[in-house]
Design a protein that fits this description.
This protein is an alpha/beta fold and 435 residues long. It folds into three domains: 3-134 and 303-336, NAD(P)-binding Rossmann-like Domain (Rossmann fold, 3-Layer(aba) Sandwich); 138-299, Dihydrodipicolinate Reductase, domain 2, CATH 3.30.360.10; 349-431, ACT domain (Alpha-Beta Plaits, 2-Layer Sandwich). Helices cover 36% and strands 25% of the residues. Strands 7, 8, 9, 10, 11, 12, 13, 14, 15, 16 and 17 form an eleven-stranded mixed beta sheet that branches. A six-stranded parallel beta sheet has the order 3-2-1-4-5-6, sandwiched between helices. Helix 1 packs across helix 12, helix 7 packs across helix 8 (176-186) and helix 13 packs antiparallel against helix 14. The chain binds L-homoserine. The site of L-homoserine has 10 residues, from helix 7.
Length: 435
């Protein structure tokens, strides 16, 4: 029986899950691969911790160099995370001719162009299914299953922590802080949860997806990012009354010239299947010229779902190796010479439907002042609601707009915020899938 030897860097949640999956499903994997996948070495700084699995003698090491320099190892699974030592070890491993599987979306979003270039020069693969959407085969779907399509747009819930928090507030009336604490206890929040809450983790994932969807160089810096920290129970309740759920969506569209790439809280109608994706689950809707729309749904984080994606990538590379091929499927979905720097459309250039909330003094003329400014910016109001929730003489005023330009909305809100009739920065939530 042929054998492919692999090494793991980092035995945290996902690294441990990979070792466990190899043990539990090893014979099944062998039946599918026609060779055994053997864990030759696994490195972590903490070798004392009880991970609930037994490693063969000599597998565990605290020296990552032992893994990346082992001449028998063909594939390195980098599960350290972050942009510092993980990058150094990946570069060393590539220079040693090893193939890489990584879950490190932050690293790929910021340094992917450089790493993929080096891998191509050295004739090895970097596979990254576990970096986006946990167990969902989103990378394989875009790169392989939809290879005959022109991809038009991708819209998804890509952060389990934010979805968990928003679902808890919506369905159970839990406070933001309590919901975040529960997400951390469940183990799917990033070590620094601001990466989740402020939308950066989602941006890392969207940078990767829009690159492989359109043949674009990875471009994190031009993605518009807005997280969920300003969303209030009031917004969620009002959305619910109007038939919407608030979700942190990653949205990318391509018009043939420029890419739209944005992350922000979004109101979507109950009829949109993404509105029913709850808890830490992730889901993505893809649109292509041949397929119309399709959707993927599943656990976007967690030990075994993410390990499943990492093993899938490992098996793909192992299959190539067994047939003497490498990078049979281009890493970034397009042949290298066709990957271009494609400009990103600034958020100001988009247009759509909006929800706005003002905290205003409850006195005559306030509404007319607000609506007057909106009118000056060609923003037509679809509905206005003011409820008896006065707090210190201030009431929330909720509005839904007809189709409007983002740049005009922003200018109008800045003007309204500067008036002495409003007490706080107005809240704005973009609406998708409405009319
Ligand atoms: N912190 C991420 C999430 C983990 O909450 O979805 C998976 O990338």
């Amino acid at each position: 029986m042929k054998e492919i030897k692999i090494g793991i860097l980092g035995l945290g949640t996902v690294g441990t899950g990979i070792a466990r999956l190899l043990q539990e499903n090893g014979s099944l994997i062998t039946q599918r691969l026609g060779a055994t996948l053997t864990l030759k070495k696994a490195a972590d700084i903490d070798l004392e911790k009880d991970r609930g699995i037994q490693f063969e003698d000599g597998v565990l090491t605290s020296d990552a160099d032992e893994v990346v320099n082992d001449p028998e190892i063909d594939i390195i699974l980098e599960m350290i995370g972050g942009e510092t030592i993980a990058k150094d070890f990946i570069i060393k491993a590539i220079n040693n001719g090893k193939h890489i599987v990584t879950a490190n979306k932050a690293l790929l979003a910021s340094h992917g162009n450089e790493l993929f270039k080096l891998a191509a020069e050295k004739g090895v693969s970097i596979a990254f299914e576990p970096s986006v959407g946990g167990c969902m085969p989103i990378i394989k779907t875009i790169r392989e299953s939809l290879a005959g399509n022109r991809i038009v747009s991708i819209c998804g819930i890509l952060n389990g922590t934010c979805n968990y928090i928003l679902s808890k507030i919506t369905n159970e009336g839990v406070s933001f802080e309590d919901a975040l604490a529960e997400a951390q206890a469940e183990g799917f929040a990033e070590a620094d949860p601001t990466l989740d809450i402020e939308g950066f983790d989602t941006a890392h994932k969207l940078a990767i997806l829009s690159s492989i969807a359109y043949g674009a160089e990875i471009n994190l810096k031009d993605i518009y990012v807005e997280g969920i920290s300003n969303i209030t129970a009031m917004d969620i309740e009002f959305a619910d009354q109007c038939g919407y759920r608030i979700k942190l969506l990653a949205i990318t569209k391509f018009n043939g010239n420029a890419i739209e790439a944005r992350i922000h809280p979004t109101m979507i109608p109950f009829s949109n299947p993404l509105s029913n994706v709850n808890g830490s689950l992730n889901a993505v809707t893809l649109s292509g010229d041949a397929i119309g729309e399709m959707m993927l749904y599943g656990h976007g984080a967690g030990m075994m779902p993410t390990a499943s994606a990492a093993i899938s990538d490992t098996i793909d590379i192992a299959r190539d190796l067994l047939f003497g091929a490498t990078t049979r499927v281009p890493m970034l979905s397009f042949q290298k010479k066709h990957i271009k720097a494609i400009p990103t459309q600034p958020i100001d250039d988009i247009s759509g439907y909006y929800y706005v909330r003002f905290s205003a003094i409850d006195q005559p003329g306030v509404l007319s002042k607000i609506s007057g400014i909106l009118g000056e910016h060609s923003i037509s109001i679809k509905s206005v609601h003011q409820y008896e929730q006065k707090l210190n003489g201030v009431v929330p005023i909720f509005m839904l707009t007809h189709h409007a330009k983002e740049s005009e909305i922003q200018k109008a809100l800045a003007k309204i915020a500067s008036l002495d009739i409003t007490t706080k920065q107005p809240a704005l939530i973009r609406i998708e899938g409405s009319s």
